[in-house]
Amino acid sequence: MTDFTIAPERAECADAIEALHEDAFGPGRFTRAAFRLREQGPHDAALSFVALSAAGELLGSVRMTPVVTGASGHHGYLLGPLAVAVAHKNRGFGRALVRRAVEETGATGTARFVLLVGDAPYYNPLGFVPVPKGRVLMPGPVDPTRLLVHPLGDKAVPGALAGMVMHESRSTTTPAPASP
Ligand SMILES: CC(C)(COP(=O)(O)OP(=O)(O)OC[C@H]1O[C@@H](n2cnc3c(N)ncnc32)[C@H](O)[C@@H]1OP(=O)(O)O)[C@@H](O)C(=O)NCCC(=O)NCCS
């Protein structure tokens, strides 16, 4: 197993992460609903993580973007893109990145959920469950079976999830503690 560390994303990782996304998703990534949401505003670098080898090589990356749900105004995060370098797949880096990002997001105490668009068989064991069909809208078409949520705190689902998901910067509400 490659020796690796998970660390918060730093600005100097940006080019390597972009190259990783190009390799993993290709140009089609720009048309995805999750991308459309992410282009509404910046990701949160403090809750976005990279997996690095002992030599400092980028092995994988996960980003977290602050979002709100339209009707409720509840705050959460959109997880993604998650990508692992082709040469380093199936060594646990992807799961380690997701676990760390979810754990740190939960520790903020203000986010009620982590949402993502992805493959349920990969994310189910990491605590993600399907969003009830029709409950939330993304800014683009999404296969409803791929819209998954990880609750944070005890009030997260289903109450906090309703309506259009948008970048937090478009919201007029401020984050409130997720738990009493
Ligand atoms: C998906 C991805 C992030 C997984 O990262 P990884 O570090 O290779 O995966 P892990 O080592 O954490 O987990 C490997 C396990 O997940 C499984 N797995 C990988 N991708 C999967 C998928 N899309 N659906 C279901 N299972 C998947 C592997 O078969 C393996 O199963 P095993 O443990 O039973 O052998 C990586 O393959 C990748 O970058 N893919 C291209 C981009 C992408 O699809 N991102 C996710 C969008 S949903």
TrEMBL record:
Q: Which GO terms describe its molecular function?
A: acyltransferase activity, transferring groups other than amino-acyl groups
Please list the residue ranges annotated as the N-acetyltransferase domain: 4-143
Gene3D superfamilies recorded:
3.40.630.30
**What InterPro entries has UniProt attached to this entry?**
Acyl_CoA_acyltransferase, GNAT_dom
Q: What is this protein called?
A: N-acetyltransferase
* Entry keywords, A to Z: Transferase
Species source reads Roseitalea porphyridii
Q: Which PROSITE patterns match?
A: GNAT (PS51186)
